[in-house]
Design a protein that fits this description.
By secondary structure, the chain is mainly alpha-helical. The protein contains nine helices and no strands. Helix 8 packs antiparallel against helix 9. The N and C termini lie far apart (42 Å).
Length: 192
């Protein structure tokens, strides 16, 4: 994230820009987002937006980093409890639908086809899965594929699926039934 202003007025302006940009990017993606709509919603001007964030692409990066930095996006990973991790990811998608949509836009508009392997977080997960596989606690196979399979199962009801998005408005019993199904399905998929 860029170095944001330290004055209270500058911090308030940059926060308004981030909030307005989050709404704009979430709804329209990077290509569809318009700086004019962002500055109007943030009650500021282009000069301030570009001074604080540099470009529309850098603003998207700042929005994504801001959403990731919020506590709701952290999901504890445990290679010995992939069913539990899947349920925690499901719960995170309910708490953070904007983040899920932003990640989907990033994937659609920025990343080439295929998996993007090599980021630190993915490396830690696949190393832990590989170690659990070597110890016989998880099924054999490519650790990246196993992590991606579990992540896809956990995200099946997220706003990024394009078919059905779960909502916090649904009854608690519905979510609990999905958590149970998810936990059981992942356990069957990953056990040796």
């Amino acid at each position: 994230m860029p170095d944001l202003p330290t004055t209270s007025r500058g911090a308030a302006t940059s926060r308004r820009i981030l909030d307005a940009a989050t709404a704009e990017f979430t709804e329209r993606g990077i290509a569809g987002a318009r700086v004019d709509r962002i500055i109007a919603a943030a009650r500021t001007n282009k000069a301030q937006l570009y001074t604080y964030f540099g470009s529309k692409d850098a603003l998207f990066d700042a929005v994504l980093a801001d959403c990731l930095d919020r506590g709701d996006s952290h999901v504890e990973f445990d290679a010995d409890d992939l069913p539990g991790w899947a349920v925690r990811v499901y719960d995170m998608t309910l708490r953070s639908p904007d983040l899920i949509r932003l990640l989907a836009w990033s994937r659609l508009e920025r990343r080439p086809a295929g998996l993007s392997i090599g980021d630190h977080d993915t490396d830690l997960k696949t190393t832990a899965v590989s170690e659990a596989q070597a110890a016989g606690r998880l099924r054999a196979g490519d650790p990246v594929d196993l992590v991606m399979l579990v992540l896809a199962m956990a995200s099946a009801w997220s706003p990024a699926t394009g078919t059905y998005a779960a909502s916090t408005d649904e009854p608690a019993a519905v979510h609990e039934a999905r958590r149970t199904l998810l936990r059981e399905a992942v356990a069957r998929a990953v056990m040796p």
